[in-house]
Every structure is written in C-alpha cells, then in structure tokens.
Design a protein that fits this description.
mainly alpha; about 70% helix; globular; disordered N terminus
Length: about 280
C-alpha cells in the first residue's frame, strides 16, 4: 500500500482505497463484521475493543499500521454515535455535569492525532503493556469502588482534573487502544461516576473527538473507507445493542466491572505473548 501523503496529494473526503496486500475472500468480510460487532459491544461496556479491530485490519486484511489506525476510527465513530443515542434515550447521559472532561478530552485528542500522523506509536505501545498491568491491580483492589452510584455532588480539583482529562484525550487521539479502560478508571475512581454513567460519557466523548480525528487522518490519506465502513456496520450494531441493555439492566455495573477485568487480562496476555507458553 502506497501512502498518498508520500506524494503530498491528500485524498478527497470519502475516497475509497481498495488495494490490499492479498485477495480478500468472503470469509474475510464475515470475520471483519462479526469481530467488529464484538469490539463495538466491548468498547461500549468496558474498552479496548480496538485490540480486536486493529488485529483484523493488520493481520487479516493486511493494512499497514498507520492506515489501520485511521481506518479503525470510522467504526469507533459510528458505534459511539449509536451508543450515545441509546444511553441518552434511557436517561444515562447527562452532558451538563460532564462538560469539563468532554471539552478537555476533545482538545487533547486533536493534539494527539496530529502527533499520531507524524510519529510512529510503536514505542508507546511498549509502555502500554506495563500500563495494562498497573490497571489490572487498580481494578482488582477494592472492587467496591467500581460499583458505586454516581456522586453528583463530587467536586474535582481543577489542578488535577485539567491535565488529567487533557492527557486522556491526547492518548485517545494518539493511539485509541485501551483509552476506554483508562477513561473509566479516571471517571469512576477520580470523578466518582458509576460505571454505566462513565461509559455513557466515554461513548459521547470518543464519538465527538473521533469525528475530528477522522478528518485529520483523511487529509493524510490514512483511511480505507471500503473496509472501514464495512466494519462500522458491525461496530454500530454491537455498540447500540449493548448501550441499550446496559442502560436498563440493574446489574450493569457489576457486569461492566467483570468485563473490564477480562478485557485487561486478555490485553496483558496478548501484549506479553503469554499465550505462546501454552502453544
């Protein structure tokens, strides 16, 4: 795959790139849709579903890393939009009290994606492995903290909140993978949101900045719209259905916490290649 930016000729919006390293068969498309549906569900209730979609894009479809990173954002945007609608309809999304994390995350994300299109994120992924290990301990220690109801009277220190939310946004714009996990940790443990309410804000924030991120990636020719839109179908379905039922199910916080543990453990196994010990 030749990047258009090498010739300084940005692609027009919604241009399709269809040249893949190998011939795609029908089952490639099936796996892409089903895998993205699972990723959309995981992203909505926990996070790190991009580990699935990025693997499909790079290992199954054969896209280069930066192109896969940009293409992945299409499904993230559509699943976020669908999840936002579901959470909103069921009274779980309250934008008024969440304006600070929303605004600062979007600003940070724009900065992050500008860096992402010019700098390789491979070295940062090495740091990400150890961040996941730390996060596992954070999730497992005092699990009751993750099952609380939203404290609407909670006041945050701006000297802590501002850089924290900006850093979250920067990370999301830069690499996206695992952003949902870190966002939930901040919103639940620091801002004292319930897991479901934190997920509602997360979905809205990710959708808002991802729209801007897509525009930036597209100007660099780093989006394959054909496969991206296909996977968006699965991610949108998974995101909407999960958000709808999570908003109505009384034990949603409990199951979200359990899924979060599973997601982080699987991420650690994959990142450290621990699965090879059993092969």
């Amino acid at each position: 795959m030749i990047f258009i930016r090498e010739f300084n000729l940005p692609l027009p919006i919604f241009a399709l790139q269809t040249s893949y390293p190998m011939q795609l068969e029908w089952y490639h498309y099936l796996v892409a849709v089903l895998g993205s549906a699972l990723a959309g569900s995981i992203n909505t209730l926990a996070g790190n579903g991009s580990a699935i979609t990025l693997t499909i894009l790079t290992e199954l479809i054969g896209l280069p890393g930066n192109l896969a990173n940009g293409t992945n954002r299409i499904g993230i945007f559509t699943q976020s939009a669908a999840g936002t609608v579901a959470f909103w309809r069921n009274g779980k999304l309250h934008l008024g009290r969440s304006w600070l994390p929303i605004t600062l995350n979007i600003i940070g994300a724009v900065i992050g994606v500008i860096v992402a299109v010019n700098v390789s994120n491979e070295e940062f992924k090495n740091v990400f492995r150890f961040l996941m290990v730390v996060m596992l301990f954070v999730i497992l220690i005092k699990p009751s903290r993750w099952l609380r109801s939203t404290d609407i009277a909670r006041k945050t220190n701006p000297w802590i909140a501002v850089p924290l939310y900006l850093a979250l946004g920067f990370y999301g714009g830069f690499i996206q993978m695992g952003m949902g996990v870190f966002f939930l940790a901040v919103m639940v443990l620091y801002a004292h949101y319930s897991l479901v309410d934190a997920n509602a804000v997360k979905i809205f924030v990710v959708g808002a900045y991802t729209f801007l991120v897509i525009l930036i990636f597209q100007t660099q020719g780093l989006i394959d719209w054909k496969i991206g839109l296909l996977m968006a179908v699965g991610q949108t379905a998974g995101g909407y259905v999960t958000a709808h039922y999570a908003s109505r199910y009384e034990q949603a916080n409990v199951w979200a916490h359990r899924l979060l543990i599973v997601v982080v453990i699987l991420a650690i196994v994959k990142l450290f290649n621990l699965h090879q010990l059993f092969l």
